[in-house]
Amino acid sequence: MDGKTYDPLNELTPESFMELMRESKQLPKSSQPPLGKFVELYEKYLAEGYEVLSIHLTEKLSGTVNTASQAALMTTGEVEVVDTNFIARGQAFQVLEAAKMAQSGNHTMAEIKERMEKIRSKTKLYIVVVTLENLIKGGRVGRVQGLLGSLLNIKLIAELKEGQLEETAKVRSNKKILNYLLELVGAEKRKIVALDIEHANGLQMAEAFQTAAKKLLGISSIPIFDADPVVATHAGNGAFAVMYYTE
């Protein structure tokens, strides 16, 4: 940002990043880890006798998984690279299940990947973009559409399908946003196994949905997470997302 490089894990908090982004003249730029870092990490664990399952966000939004695949070809051991087709907690559902199965020691790589694919096929992610400013700056929507959105105070709701964002609705009020999302989760015919929320300085809306969804679905735990800098950069200030998967 503005010529300075930050490590998001050690040098930024969600709050400090949002403040820096708000003051920055241009959108922050992100970079995937270099090829050599992947090779180095893979070789480290292969040398210790492990197989490696390398799990990544959708190729449609980042080239990271392609770099990981190139690195895997440069190693001599068992490295499996997986594109989750999701981001954020939508990706985490697959990661956490894979980790649990791996730690049990009772499953093969093929069984873990098969379970991940099942979760992936039953995962849905909806994101609410309150301001289109960052999407416009990042080239994610046309300028005319963005101008109309700002003039009419329209909020965009999009679904991440097959790794790509697809517009599902435009609404003008927070109440309509909540009603729309609650209707979506309430209409699910299969039981929701896990439902998580992420936000980029949109905690008020996230908490409002959390409270209503708990009552509607009878789910005791619906955690709320801060969006990471990459997601927050493109989603913009005030955005929040709802992610879940079903049986």
From TrEMBL:
Molecular function terms from GO = lipid binding
Question: Which purpose does this protein serve, as stated in its record?
Answer: May bind long-chain fatty acids, such as palmitate, and may play a role in lipid transport or fatty acid metabolism.
**By its UniProt entry, which NCBIfam families does this protein fall under?**
DegV (TIGR00762)
Give the species.
Listeria aquatica FSL S10-1188
Q: Which domain of life is it from?
A: Bacteria
Tell me the keywords, alphabetical order.
Answer: Lipid-binding
Q: What is the name of the protein in this document?
A: DegV family protein
Keyword check for Acetylation, yes or no: no
Q: Which PROSITE patterns match?
A: DEGV
